[in-house]
Amino acid sequence: MRGKIAFQGEPGAYSHQACRQARPEMEPMPCRTFEDAMEAVRQGKADLAMLPVENSTYGRVADMHSLLPQSGLHIIDEAFVRVHISLLGIPGTKIADIRQAMSHTVLLGQCRDFLRAHGIQSLTGADTAGSAMKIAEMGDPAIGALASELAGEIYGLDVLAKEIEDQQNNTTRFLVMSRELDLTRRGEAGMITTFMFRVRNIPAALYKAMGGFATNGVNMTKLESYMVNGSFTATQFYADVEGHPEDRNVQLAFDELRYFTTEMSLVGVYPADSRRH
């Protein structure tokens, strides 16, 4: 019996595409929200969750970065998915017929040039595949959807234009989340360690905490800050570094980090995707 991997959105969403690409042996499980996808894993209804965190054109997925720190789940893999965006319409529609295009706000932001060039107004939908499904139900030739070709196939829509994204390297990074932390694997393209920490309330604490990574030659690829419980004085940080916690240089950097922090926890240790670089 194959396991289940939860994702946010309707069948045909880019997260669905990511599931098929990264875990083709698993059964994709659509969920209404990111929280629902995480909760499905926490409750054991799904084995894994596929969650988008950032896009090369639009930037970070804001909801995810606020949800990840408190999810209670662990990252066991990352997947970089090339996002090809199509303009979809009801059968028989032409581009000239389209006056409005519906999609998730993140996807709308990745097609601004195309929409402007064709005089098409943006309509915000709950998600990409859900927008395609709604357009199919509405049957209005003046309203199209921005989504994947997979969504067009699922909901019986025509592809009016392909690869309309503004940036030709348009890529979304997804994280594969699990209930358990896995420290056993090593990746051919290296390892990524994701962790969270809160610095002590002393002058230059963050500067000093980061010094150990520089002196030990550990490359930090991400550093995000978050408010804690709405407080302007309590700040939590989310970071990615290249390497494994068992690597000597990472161990030394973490030893120094702990000296200047009040808490620190591992969120994930996972092989770097070969498309990362």
Automatic annotation (TrEMBL):
GO terms for biological process: L-phenylalanine biosynthetic process. It catalyses: prephenate + H(+) = 3-phenylpyruvate + CO2 + H2O. Pathway: Amino-acid biosynthesis; L-phenylalanine biosynthesis; phenylpyruvate from prephenate: step 1/1. It is an enzyme of class 4 (lyase). One of its GO terms (cellular component) is cytoplasm. CDD domains: ACT_CM-PDT, PBP2_Ct-PDT_like. It comes from the Bacteria. One of its GO terms (molecular function) is prephenate dehydratase activity. Its EC number is 4.2.1.51. SUPFAM superfamilies: ACT-like, Periplasmic binding protein-like II. Pfam families: PDT. Keywords: Amino-acid biosynthesis, Aromatic amino acid biosynthesis, Lyase, Phenylalanine biosynthesis. NCBIfam families: PRK11899.1 (NF008866). PANTHER family: PREPHENATE DEHYDRATASE P PROTEIN (PTHR21022), PREPHENATE DEHYDRATASE-RELATED (PTHR21022:SF19). This is prephenate dehydratase. It comes from Haematobacter massiliensis.
